[in-house]
Amino acid sequence: MEFLLGGASSMCAVLFTNPLDVLKTRQQLEGELIAKQNLKTRSYKGIRQSIITVIRTDGFRGLQKGLPAALLFQFSMNSVRLGTYQTVDNLGWTKSTKHPSLTPLLSILWGGCAGLVSATASCPFYVVKTQLQAVTSGSYTARFQHRHSGTLSAFVNIYTQSGIRGLFRGYPASVARLVVGSAAEMASFSVCKSILLRYEVFQESIVLTALASSTVAGFFTSVLMSPCDVVTTRMTNQAVSASGKGLLYTNIFDCFLKIYRSEGIHGYYKGFVPMYLRVAPHTMLNLTFWEFFKGLYEQYGRQRNRI
């Protein structure tokens, strides 16, 4: 049940945050491996201009591009991630009663492990989601666009061209992204939640505690995860040869190095604003829905036991 609750909460959250994910993807791919001073025109500069560009080229529906794949990605990722973390938390492995100072480290460890498992389960959906979000009918500055007609078409096209390997393109970067992001999110959420629950006002409201804790978690997640997120997007969306090998980046280290050489540190934080605006409320909504669903399930369990 922990896995189902985690997946359901993330699907509710992504309905609200997918437009920001589209903007983030477009910004991360614009001016790929081009130095900032050499990028003369930008179609996705800032949130306002990015929204206008998407609407002009793809209509209002463009803001929800890749939504079916995003829903599948979020369910597969967070059902495993939150379910795994909740399971080990129920077993008491995320806390140390003998050495309380080790509790934050245990939260980071198990948060990272949950991220590793979820990256494996969700990688194919992330590949499809990114490639669909990158496609636009207007002029575009990205190096490559994969022309899929829909989610199912994307899975078929990728598998036909590159096999299972194609569905796991950028897997090492995806693992790094989710391990860092999950460790930061779950650890900061757990620590903040434990601190807030010392106060009566938070003890009386599950939603208020979750909102406050997830706001802090979203900030740390955004700052730490952004470089890995950019690299994952770039590796996932790059053009491939007939044999399915990437034509621009050979591996995660090559991608990190090429971005730094061409775009500097700035390249690692492209799309940071829409990413933060997405991650913070998504984390807030996701973890709040998660806490709410868990509360309902626990209430249902208590009522069933009374019967």
TrEMBL record:
Entry annotated with the keyword Transport: yes
GO CC annotations, alphabetized: mitochondrial inner membrane
Domain of life, source organism: Eukaryota
Membrane topology listed for this record: Multi-pass membrane protein
Keyword Repeat: yes
Solcar repeat segments: 1-91, 102-195, 205-296
Broad class of the protein's primary localization: mitochondrion
InterPro entries associated with the record: MCP_dom_sf, MCP_transmembrane, Mito_Carrier_Antiporter
Transmembrane segments: none
Subcellular location: Mitochondrion inner membrane
Annotated keywords: Membrane, Mitochondrion, Mitochondrion inner membrane, Repeat, Transmembrane, Transmembrane helix, Transport
Family the UniProt entry places it in: Belongs to the mitochondrial carrier (TC 2.A.29) family.
Protein name according to UniProt: Mitochondrial oxaloacetate carrier protein
Species whose genome carries this gene: Anopheles maculatus
